[in-house]
Design brief:
ARM-like, about 75% helix, mainly alpha, HEAT_type_2, DAAF5, Maestro/Maestro-like HEAT-repeats domain-containing protein
Length: about 210
């Protein structure tokens, strides 16, 4: 029966406790609220419609939590964003979606490897949330920023990060292949090794002709 109350619980209990206040006690309360939020999103107690109604109030608070000093809070915030994208990503307006990816890109430079990895997974989920009416030409500046930042991390010292980024970039390639190809070619010779860039360019060239006509 909790499902009947979950929207009110999120609105009246969790959201107020996610608001930033100074001090260690307030930080601990925010971490607890983030933990509850993730449990609520994962547990299936909140419906698609309920979450969609509260997304505009929830997202800015989760974005703020992505900047917390606490690694646990940043990790919980990343996971909460992933869970939100899984639940309602394809129903979000393009403007709402375009506010999410820059926040995730910041976490790709996180001091925690775990946060970086979860943020990269969330970028993949963001890409899966883009429906056919997300116009790649109209939103080309957004895609260009996304591609440029991901290509930076394609040159990461950690090969496992490079592999993870390559998979996300391959996913990107069907969105705007010509733009991604141009950006990849521009950085290829500046990277420590052209291997991953070459693998990406090879993947783009193997795409069906109709995809390449973007």
């Amino acid at each position: 029966h909790f499902c009947d109350e979950s929207e009110r619980f999120l609105s009246d209990v969790l959201l107020p406790n996610l608001v930033w206040h100074a001090g260690r006690t307030a930080a601990a309360v925010r971490t607890s609220a983030l933990s509850c939020l993730l449990a609520l999103l994962h547990g299936g107690a909140i419906t698609h419609g309920q979450l969609l109604c509260l997304e505009e109030r929830l997202s800015p608070l989760v974005f703020s939590a992505l900047e917390e000093d606490s690694q646990m809070s940043r990790l919980l915030a990343c996971r909460s964003l992933s869970a939100t994208l899984k639940l309602i990503g394809t129903s979000l307006h393009h403007e709402a979606l375009n506010k999410i990816y820059p926040e995730l890109l910041k976490r790709l430079d996180d001091s925690s490897e775990e946060v970086r990895s979860v943020a990269m997974q969330a970028v993949g989920l963001w890409l899966s949330s883009l429906t056919k009416d997300y116009n790649p030409e109209l939103y080309a500046p957004h895609l260009q920023l996304l591609f440029q930042q991901l290509l930076l991390h394609l040159d990461d010292p950690d090969s496992s990060v490079q592999d993870q980024v390559l998979e996300v970039l391959k996913k990107c390639s069907s969105l705007h292949p010509s733009l991604l190809q141009k950006e990849a070619e521009a950085v290829r010779d500046k990277q420590r090794s052209p291997l991953h860039c070459d693998l990406l360019l090879q993947h783009i060239s193997s795409l069906p002709t109709e995809t390449l006509q973007h």
